[in-house]
Amino acid sequence: MRTLCASTLIGEFFVIGFAGLVAMKDPDLSVSTVWTVSGIAMFLCLLLCGLVTRPGGVALGWALQIGLIASGFVVPTMFFMGAMFAALWWASVHYGRKIDEAKARFAAQAGSSADAA
């Protein structure tokens, strides 16, 4: 699960950076505000890459997805991008857990057949 989720978060890192560049063109927003918010979100993406397998890591990832979708109120394209990344996040968590379960089953079977020999 960690690899799939981290890949999604790294993709989000770059998308948030590009969205920050787009948001800078909004005359109602100060450059410092845009980069403070974008920088915090980008840092959270990197932080979550390491925390995703810890308790609460997936929940924090979902909170980041909600924030990414909500950023569509500033950069309208982010409604779409946020929804796409939320779908990727769901797939990463869902299929990542299935892969982890299959690996554990395979390891248990390999261990039991090694003991029998």
How would you concisely characterize the structure shown here?
With 117 residues, the chain is mainly alpha-helical. The chain contains four helices and no strands. It has helices at 2-23, 31-51, 57-70, 77-116.
| Total count of helical runs of at least 4 residues | 4
Overall average pLDDT: 93
Largest sheet: none
Report the radius of gyration as a whole number of Å: 18 Å
The number of E-state strands comes to 0
How far the N terminus sits from the C terminus, by CA atoms, comes to: 32 Å
Uncertain stretches? none
Residue share in helix:
over 70%
Question: Your description of this structure?
Answer:
By secondary structure, the chain is mainly α. Helices cover 83% and strands 0% of the residues. It contains 4 helices and no strands. Helix 3 (57-70) runs antiparallel to helix 4. It is elongated.
Strand and helix layout:
Elements (H helix, E strand, L loop, with lengths): L1 H22 L7 H21 L5 H14 L6 H40 L1
Helix pairs in contact: 1-2, 1-4, 2-3, 3-4
Throw out a few tags for this protein.
elongated, 117 residues, mainly alpha
